[in-house]
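Forum: Protein Structure Q&A
Topic: Joint prediction for protein chains with partners

I've read a bunch of threads here and the consensus seems to be that you should model interacting components together rather than docking separate models afterwards. I'd like to see that in practice. Below is the full input, 798 residues plus whatever partners are listed. Could one of the regulars post the assembled result?
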Amino acid sequence: MKMKLATLALGAVMAAGPALADLTFSSLSYRTGPYAANGIPFADGYADYFTLLNERDGGIGGEKVNLVECETGYNTEKGVECYESTKGTGALVYQPLSTGITYQLIPKATADGIPVHSMGYGRTSAKNGSVFRNIFNYPANYWDGASIAIKHLLDLNGGDISGKRVALVYHNSAYGKEPIRTLEELAKKHGYELSLLPVDHPGQEQKSQWLQIRRERPDYVLMWGWGVMNQVAIQEAVNIRYPMENFIGIWWSGSENDVKPAGEGAHGYKALTFHNVGSDYPIFDDIKTHVVDKGLAAGAGDQIGTVLYNRGLYAAMLAAEAAKTAQELHGTATITPAQMRDGMEALSITEEKMAALGMPNFGPSFTVTCTNHGGDGYGAVAQWDAKAGSWSLITDYMQSDQDVLGPLIKEDSEAYAAENKIEEQKFCP
Amino acid sequence: MLYREAGDFKTSYTDDGQTFPIKFDRIGYYVALIVAFAIVPFVINDYWVNAIFLPFLIYAIAAIGLNVLVGYCGQVSLGTGGFMAVGAYACYKFMTGIDIWIGGVQYALPPINIFFSVILAGFVTAIVGVLFGLPSLRIKGFYLAVATLAAQFFLVWLFNKWSWTYNYSASGQISAPERGMFGVPVTGPNTEAWATYLFCLVFVVVLALIARNLTRGSVGRKWMAIRDMDIAAEIIGVDPLKAKLSAFAVSSFYVGIAGALFFSVYLGAVEVGEAFGIQKSFLVLFMVIIGGLGSIFGSFAGAAFLVLLPVLLKNVLVSGLGWPTDLAAHLEFMIVGALIVTFLILEPHGLAQLWRVIKEKLRLWPFPH
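Posted by a regular:
Agreed with the consensus. Here's the joint model:
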């Protein structure tokens, strides 16, 4: 009980937060812990894009951007602390880059009226905007990813994969469990056999899973991994000489940091992606001039052009475009989180827009609507070339199987609505 | 001068046996209670409650619980995370209404009030704790630690595997729906800072009082006898079976309540592997060791040290000095680690012993002779 007094004494120090800036964005990043290898490039890309906007254009719509970074370590408790501390600074949108933290923020942020953009992660059924009013997961979600991976397998096998055996190696958490429903549903439709191999956090121990794969020799292995789990899985696959071209990771299991430790052996490993790879875009020249050369690059500045850096850049671009849309919509430069939400809901990304931003053909074009917060579910497959040390897209953007996903999303979001007593149709006309 | 028992006369055994026999302590205790109940609720905001007070209060309950087992009864346990998970999942089942399937027909209890759900979760955890405490009758020390470690891994595996415990949700996560007391929500997203704070505070105060009095009474003396020398204790008439299992039951009850509050009030949504992994067991054990084994005050001090120090460091380094977040996070580990080592070298019996030494000094101050 006496500590109460001491606790209060800490207050004087803690109450002093950063001053309110014009447009505040929060970056719940993780540069430490078992997921740092993937967290750092994303956070760097996210920060560099906003630095670029500040340096080149003077911010968004004339308002400077203030990026508040908070270290979560991929830990939900720290995520809560980060959310509460950045909420006070008036953060416009949250991108926690963690499915666990996203699940936590869904009810909280909705109650606080702050939008959350879980780009390619989080709760899949948040696509249904009439239930999840403040949550966005465009341009693609896990169920799209699962469906696109199966589509790719169908393409490889001339449209028939019945009787094939597909194994899913997944992070044993909400994140890794997300695709199971879809894969089971698709197994019914296409007739493949699905086997599930969970890997516990943080994923350094996978010997038994890969022994099982070695024994059963499934035709294809899909992976939902993150952080150190990716490197370990790819190395283990190399160790058992599993054919790498039959090993497909979700977009979170397909960065340079994941394949490089396995060296030459990782050649041919495939991963999904919902945006383009490489640094052959005009925007990277601007980043060099306005960010790197001025010594303003985030982190060590050595991640530019990597897959996850590009994804951070893409996430920041979508956030900035949504802020611009909100500014136009409400006719004010200093928008509030509620106006930001409207901007996200009215967001439309077209090829012309991306080209104007120096990112031609960087991602699929899509439009967000009140009922569809998840985009159209386009993704592509990238393959790792260990000799050249680069990723390259080997397919066009393809759309996920909306006939299967639509009902699943409806079912899951309706269950959430019933559980939390949300009236659908109230928000959307 | 400031702190002395001289002149503080007691005229009855009841007076002499009260919880805080020294007047200064007693006044401090009442002041702390008044501040906690009457002042803090009016001044806290969301940040204070979610980043500081809730974790502190909840970890304090868990630390008291583990202290009963490790500090008072001398049984080492590494299963705290698993037992917290039992509390959390039991609370979830109670607050959403337990469903039982018999022959394909579902029988469901109505959802139970959150306050009673938390208490019932404590009882469920107590039962589970006793089950996993049974090996303590045959093994002790490191061997018992390994047996409780098995409980930790088994329970986490169970809550990942057994879909009934998370109501068959696709993600395996449990999320607390909105529940409240007297029409005021204490779980779910629409809570007020003061409501969740007071809800947890009531549990902390009541449980700390019970723990304090349990450990001063015959039950606690039996635990301590077992801790100090189990064979001697048995010879003077302490039943090791009852003493050890009651320590496991009481300890797990506390840890279960901490787990239930951790899930329902503090986080709102948890995933068993992430929230109740082995690191949680170690964290609570560190709180107990740093705070002081066999001390209720030590449990609070240890919880405060390990919960508040990282938050304080983060705020000083990142918000105050504007350092990069990763540098601050790494420094945080180093500073907290160095402080733990320093504290334990200077005072191996923890912060509680440090406080005791200060009190001794205060009694003589300013005339040391």
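The beta strands of chain B are 99-102, 105-108, 174-175, 180-181, 184-185, 269-270.
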